[in-house]
Amino acid sequence: MIMKMDLSGEENNFENKDLTANNIHFCNYKELGRLLNGKYKPGSNDFILTDSNTHRYCLPVIDELFPELRTEQVVTILAGEQNKNAENLEFIWKTLLAGGAGRNSRLYCLGGGMVTDIGGFAAATFMRGIRFIHIPTSLIGMADASVGGKTAINLNGAKNVAGAFALPEAVLSCPVFLDTLPNDEFLSGFGEIVKISLVTGAAFWDKVRRTSVANLTGKRNDELAILISQAIKAKASIAFQDLKDTGVRQRLNFGHTIGHAMEELAFKKGNPVKHGFAVASGMICESYLSMKQAGLAADAHQTIESYLKENFPLIKLTTEDIPMVMSNLFHDKKKIEGNNRFSLLKSPGHCMHGIEINDSLIEESLQEYLHIHR
Ligand SMILES: NC(=O)c1ccc[n+]([C@@H]2O[C@H](COP(=O)([O-])OP(=O)(O)OC[C@H]3O[C@@H](n4cnc5c(N)ncnc54)[C@H](O)[C@@H]3O)[C@@H](O)[C@H]2O)c1
Q: In 3D, which of 320, 318, 297, 300 has the Cα closest to residue 308?
């Protein structure tokens, strides 16, 4: 248990009109109950997808708010990124079919980014597309994965190879679920909030960097709820400008190009790391690239590097690992005509996308990184 926000009362409702216009509700427990018994009330032919953890920890919250939900309406897959796969996609389709789901059914996806990604994809493709509602339960789920309509599964360990752009009918985000989220998952999720702040707003980044992540965990915390709602708003504003990810949305990839290559390295070495920790490590390298190629001031780079180093467990790299990281980058989806394309910071809060960087500079950023995490 990491934090206990008092969200049971009337106070502390973080509803925001800009978000509700896009059917994204960031709300307290009471409001979640109202939505689940009103506009987004599950019908008898609707289904709810959970993973094994959210079934245990989050479904009871839904049951309490909406006791009419029947066991047969719950579809559960095993937790973990490795289960965001084609077998489980088929399992979800088959369970919906066997349960009598039809074109008018809705799928409620109750979980972190793994559940919202695979559940969204299952719904977007079942009977050529049924409605779905995300109820994110992890920090990444709330601040990032449930917003913007990207759905996907992995293929042979390669991330998000098959998927669809499909918007949920609504997102019902309630911080009460974070009560049971393990600390390392919380911290990993906070890595994405740091990224969203760096990409979208200087004032937001200023607020984030004055936040000690350790102080946010383990206590009732309105400060956190405000940061999450700001991250949702920033993510939504950039994603809704470019739903198909052909332009400005690519800025959200800051830290992810090298971060994914490091994540893949750790996976291949049999020592998988949390996504947000890989992104934090990737942001250090890409902040260095920003300083070299995008005009980021040296002191701004230093501030970013120090903050990430102090607050996140960085991925350990050795000189021998660098060729493998480079080779992982070779497969990156964003690579065009030989050079990797990056989203880099001109200044904190001001990001540019599509910047070509040659391999020798990428290697230099990795060499620099070796000195930092020691
Ligand atoms: N679609 C997008 O735009 C987008 C954006 C970012 C990330 N993602 C995807 O999101 C996934 C990562 O998200 P994640 O970190 O939420 O992963 P996750 O869903 O695997 O959740 C992490 C772990 O926390 C558990 N968990 C979730 N909520 C809990 C709760 N309230 N209490 C107890 N345990 C809980 C899960 O069961 C899992 O074990 C990746 O698959 C990534 O590709 C998608």
A: 300
